[in-house]
Fold these 3 entries.
Entry 1:
Amino acid sequence: MLVSRLSEESITQKAKENWLSYWKYFSKSSHQKCSVPNCAKNHNQAIFVADPNDQQESIYVVPLCAEHGNNESNQLEIQDNVELVPIGFTL
């Protein structure tokens, strides 16, 4: 699945780690690896993405390894089975 990476200019590394905790809490998945196909590294942060096919233009959290999480590209290919967690949930 191809998703669009949202701007991360003001997001710190600590914030990316906190968003990973958010993803783990709200996800029904036990997925431990980076969401990028063929990446065998464990995820250690999360970023904001948008699904170009989502007409509501929702923002989602996706877990990635440091290499892919810190990549500057606008488009990101992720595995189809990765759960996209919306950012609107609260405890």
Entry 2:
Amino acid sequence: MIYRKDKVVQAGVAAVTTAVPFDYGNRALISQSFKLQQSAELLNFTVAHLRSKGSCPSDKSDVANSDSGDGQGCWNGVRLQAVQAMHNWLAGYPTGVETDNSVIVGDFNAYMQEDPIRAMNDSGYVQVSQQLYGNKVSSYLFNGESGTLDHVFAAGDIKNRVAEVTEWAINADEPVILDYNEEFKSDVAKANFYAPGPFRSSDHDPMLMSVYFAKPLVEDQLFLLDEQSVAGTVVGQIVTNSAVAIARYQLSGEQAALFSVNAAGQLVVAAGAELDFESRQVQRFELTVQSETGLVSDAATIEVQLNDLPELPLLTLEGLPTVISDQIRPGTLLATVKAQATGNNASIQTIQLIEGDKFLVLKNGQLTLKKKLNAKQQPELKFSIKATDSLGVSTIVTYVIEVKDGKGNSVLQWVISVIHAVLGWLFG
């Protein structure tokens, strides 16, 4: 197993099995997990070499492995058993890395329509060259006929990101006389037909597979924003899916300048932004994200729906004092209550006293004292008034008036006077 250290790094531990049926005929399975450096994806990579079609069993009762004449040759049963055992072995994640991304490569000694290949497809793997090009792929030449004994299978999300599968045609189509075998060659032939290049270094063509990296994902998102929001207001959290940290957020579009994304990945109202709530209720722009390794997501549409809050009625209390004496008589006018509707085509429907009606009366816009006050028992007069307009929008305002005794003292002043008197009596 040869790999590029500048592209991937090992993950987990290398795993090998020579358990039946990989103890004889089928070669040992080798599996290693890797992490793709640019996208941080994990991948389990396995090399297989299943038993060849020749050297048929001497036991004629071994029907499963004898040549049945269907074109699959001998040992089809052993190869099929190997596929099933390989699937079970890999399901236990022998490298210690649990990922659904799995690639199996090797010489299966089975052509595209044979039982072992069908079993691989049935177990969730995809023969990637067949997926891209159908059956028009060849890696081996035998008795003048070409076909594919060498396969690349992929499972998990990675099977949907195969960019290219190529048969590197350096071996199968080359004359046998050029290969590495030295039998039946004279010393002169060995010297004359040797070349240091890659051609006929094997009887099978190697297969090359290219895979697109998994780009960061960002989905279309909708946020709500109140009309009273100011610069720096957090609109919401941008949701992304990336194995590598996001390094950059890029907003684009006519309304993009109204917003920015902070270091925490939150969408915020940009400095100096003037949000137009009247003519544009939805601000729309596009967002792409870039990972630390340079991978850029597809564009997502971000919508910010401006929540145009209802216009609240205005309440004013003309003449309302901040301090009153507990000597004023019931029926005394304390304030004139006025309300003004601010919503479109709205009018004031009701003005109500909703707290403080024990001591106050509100009638025809006149707020009057209902009963006599006692500053010691009622040091403050707290009440709330509610105004509601024809749109059903209400304003509630709470007021507090300090109550003093007939000498103009508040309860706090009276308490202090008592303390002074007691201290004077104790200490002369």
Entry 3:
Amino acid sequence: VSAAELRLLICMNESHGATILKVAKQYPALKLGYHLRALSADLLEISLDITKGFDWNTGVHGSSEAFWMWVEDREGVEIIQ
């Protein structure tokens, strides 16, 4: 979405659209990639590639941003530790 398109959606001028777009791009989100490898019948190696999917702003996010990552079993019943 461009600033001009956003301006039309919110019925404001283009500079307001640009500001809203800039702030929206700072909303914390992650890009995830993974690789799975069976080590045995009961053991699975999971490798995660995690990168930020947002524009970092120290004034907003400070020096770090916390995220929780967990793995559930196939039924989604138990969190695997």
